[in-house]
Amino acid sequence: MASEEELFANIDALLAEEPQLPPPAERARLREAAGITQARLAQALELKSTQSIKNWENGRSEPTGSRLAAYQRLLEGWAAKYPAHGTPTSSAAPVAPAAAQLVAPATFTGPAAPKAKAPVPVEAPAAPAAPERPATRPATSSRRPAKKTAKPPTDPRFPHGPLAVLDGDGSAYGVDGIVLDCPATTVVELVEWTLRESGLGAAKLNRYGKDSDPLIVLTAAAAVKLGLPERLEGHEQRRSLRLPEDHPVVKQVAKAKWQLTQRGFGPWARIYRKAQGRERQCVQLAILSWDALDDRSWPGVSEMEPADIARVLGVYAQRVITPRGSTAVSGLELMTALRPPTKPERDEETGNWTSGHNPGSLGTEPMDPAPPEATVEHPVVVQSGWTGGFLNEEAYQWVRSVDLLSDEECLLPYAVGLDLNTAFLAAAARLVVGLSAPDHFHNVTFNPKIPGSWLVDLSHIELDPRLPSPFTPDGSRPTGPAWYQTHTVAYAQELGYDVHPIEAYLRRETGAYLDPWHDRLKNAYVDTLADLGVTKDLDDRQFLAAMERHKQVDPALAAVLSAIKATVKGGVGKLRERPQGKHYKEGERWPALERPTWRPDIRAAVISKARVNMHRKLNNMAKMTGLFPLAVLSDCVVYPSPSASPLDFLPYAASGKPQPGGFRLGPTPGLAKLEGVQEMAWAVDLMEKGLNPARHIKGGDAVLDEGE
Fold first, then answer.
1. In terms of pLDDT, which residue wins out, 596 or 71?
2. What's the pTM value of the predicted model, to 2 decimals?
């Protein structure tokens, strides 16, 4: 009998002309994994398996995907057709566990195989040897594979995940360590490769929605290779910069019959053609060196290696949505993706399917707000000459007067800041908002179940001055009639006061529009924290310890967590996007007004509920512990404390369990975590200067650090 190597040499000789053949070292590893031993090869040759190899070779014009996948399928075919002596023949022999580990990072040189099975991700006990790279391609500075995380089910239409990060030598790094070879040298070629060969994209999040377009992230070297400038320079804000219309790349895109959205060719460029049937033709580009990934939302990500960037964005895409712009843009897009405006409806007369309104959504047409819900420059206000005042539902920015500090408080050694986890997200839970246009009412009876804006006088309500007023962002007592969102007026009733609205703008059609948005982002937040070691089963002391070190556990996942929080705040903020640009004139419509998601009333509802939730906790804390806050900034509150730990002033029952109603520590939205600790003298000094300790308790400036 011929030696094993001779047998393998004979087979390799038959396949010598096959361009998809992997290098020798990789072939040996694949053969071993598939169980193709010398004995089995000998048996195969005795049964004239050579002819079957030739048959496979003759049919190799069919798209084969990667070299590894093609060779692996061949090996599995041999193993199934020619089992070892004594092994029953099966038409579908199971793959050995070792063979399932062949989804290790590999370089793909051709289009994805439509008939190939989706790879089954299995965590290997040891990292397999890296595949040899073609000698014709230079190596990049790093090929360090990204650390693996939990993998979502693979959609067969998008075998390589939602996105890829392209470097300067044509390597496109995807999720799960996948590396694709991208031969594109122009933006047009990149778009066509992405749509036709890359296998990138993501399935829709709602049955009536649309699949997510593939995202290609360009490193600085990749941008230059494609003919783009390494940096965009100009006097405008970085996010507003665009390539001029006469730039060669913009001309190339237009000449190839592709289009750019109204945003133009900026840090987040969308290149598309009108959809043909059900097939979308759109690619999203993100250019790292043009500051596509804001460091406040994606801390440190733009400086990571391409494989790690792909991992961060891939986890975000899996748990939230494939990024389509800033985290604020993605937060708004997520609302629409989860509540699509239309659904197919059958015309009973013709039998044809048409596009109809999807109940519970915001529809397809923009809706003008009521005048008090609008901004001063809105056409509704300017053209009507409205002078009746506006909603002022904003987050807290309040500092207690130093004159109201007691001697006992001043003698306490520490000021401790507590931060509510994603307070706006917690407020969005089961939040009923208006879905139809507002109707105007006079002398209406207040109903806490109807979302809208109410003109009511709450100035007669007198509360403890050591707490901020729940009715104004700065915590001051109202001085007369003002416009309030439903939750604010309902809280006045909850505190035991009569309310008699003078007039109101209310909506007849209502619904919990933000529920799926809340649920998806809550799961993303909780799951990511759990991956960082902060789980629901920890007691309060363990929770504080885990939160102290969670960012060091995995900086990549810590960046994902930061992006999720920014998505919540940014998405809510986008509901009332103001006009941008120095050329805007008051009274003109601006682009954001053409979106059905320009809904300042929904933003007001979220913020009103969040501020009321904060005051309710502050009030309960005062009743249970006698403690009053020094300052509040949005979702952060600062208390005087006998120690540097919140465990020494938070209310606990005799059993050791946290008392309901006050601030409670924990990893879910609405629960609290430690924001920072400073000396009490430091806090009092800031208060005397009129500054807010909650803004600086963490060190730095919380408002600027978060881009608010």
1. 596
2. 0.79
